Amino acid sequence: MAEPQSKSGSELVPELVSEFRAAPKTESSALRRPQLTMDLSALRHNAVVAKQAAGGRKLFAAVKADGYGHGAAMVTQAIRESMDGFMVASLGEGEALRQAGVTQRIMVLQGVMSQTEARRAAQRFLEPVFHHVSQIEAVGRVGFGLPLTAWLKLDTGMHRVGFTADEFPEAYARLSTLRGVRPNPGVLTHFARADEPNPAPTHAQIDLFHQVTATVQGDTSLCNSAGLLAFPDAGGDWVRPGIMLYGGNPFVTGTAADHGLRPVMTLTTRLIAIRTVQAGETVGYGGRFTASETMPVGVVAIGYGDGYPRHAPDGTPILVNGQRARLIGRVSMDLITVDLRGITASVGDSVECWGAQLPIDEVASAASTISYELMCQMSGRVARRIVE
């Protein structure tokens, strides 16, 4: 295959759109139809925000975990004008993008673990990250048929994977001398606390990175979404936006809208029943919620089998026909129940779990999780729809 080249144009490959729009064959009832709507205009808008924040640096867009649950093939096609490359977790994810027609550079964060995997990466022009000495030893001094573009991970404070500052010089020298690796490998690090209000830990990581890599001739990369927005002077040749592309808030405070980001994913379903529950009666498994008065309870066609968080507590926000309601009772596999007091509602009304009108970060916070998890855990039985 040809060396990756940037492509222009924003049109989607028709077969990718058709595959993504195809609804899962579950049941025909229009009432039982949780649906994910993906707003491509919002996705492209967020990509432009990231590009503007990059200030001339190149961008690797994070599309691991199937594009944070949005569909990696669709995402890469939609934002290829704004991105210089894409970033995945595994070799298999990178190969899938090549098969989908992606031509830009692709970084593989978990790297390769053998000569066979290194050869596969080289043949598909994938760029593995080396984060442990065992990877360098496994690959060895052999050719791969095509030169391998490699990156080395420097651990500046995350303490998860990567070489320490003391280990870095030897590791970089060893990687640089591998016969099948291009000269001057790139170097990247990852921020552990860039999303927090206190900037000191991230400044320490930035300072250490530049100190250790002062003589490196290859490309460098430091910033994720939070780093890109909060630390514009962090430097590096490449940035790696992720959650901000999908309209999630990269920070532990504030909202995505504060940074001009728009939600890409909207999860909707239907109200399939309305019950009157008497004072003292309980709702759902385990009787977690007890009615304090006679009240209307709505039954909504979604559950943890669709990807709605099972651990969501009473009070988790939800919109019924555009009106703010709250979850009551345990989340079941296929159903949830909501408090309809003070709400005008009828069977068949639309229910938004999160998205265009209800920020996903608000729901995630109520459920003691993060927007990343909610995006990634949508099941295959949820219908998908694309809007421009």
Question: Can you give me a brief rundown of this structure?
Answer:
This protein is α/β, with parallel strands linked by helices and 388 residues long.
Write structural notes for this entry:
With 388 residues, this protein is α/β, with parallel strands linked by helices. The protein folds into 2 domains: 40-255, Alanine racemase (TIM Barrel, Alpha-Beta Barrel); 265-387, Lyase, Ornithine Decarboxylase, Chain A, domain 1, CATH 2.40.37. The chain is 26% helix and 21% strand. It is built from 12 helices and 18 strands. It has helices at 14-21, 40-54, 64-68, 72-79, 91-99, 115-123, 133-139, 168-176, 200-212, 225-230, 360-366, 371-376, and strands spanning 35-39, 58-62, 85-88, 105-108, 126-130, 151-153, 186-188, 220-221, 238-239, 265-277, 282-283, 289-290, 295-300, 317-320, 323-328, 336-339, 350-354, 383-387. The strands form 3 sheets. It has an 8-stranded parallel beta sheet with strand order 8-7-6-5-4-3-2-9. The radius of gyration is 23 Å and the shape is elongated. The model is unreliable at 5-28 (pLDDT under 50).
Low-confidence stretches: 5-28
Instruction: Give the neighbour order of strands across the main sheet.
Output: 8-7-6-5-4-3-2-9
CATH architecture of the largest domain: Alpha-Beta Barrel
What is the CA–CA distance across the termini?
Answer: 31 Å
- Report the top-level CATH class of the largest domain: Alpha Beta
Largest sheet: 8 strands, parallel
Please report which band the strand proportion falls in: under 5%, 5-15%, 15-25%, 25-35%, 35-45% or over 45%. 15-25%
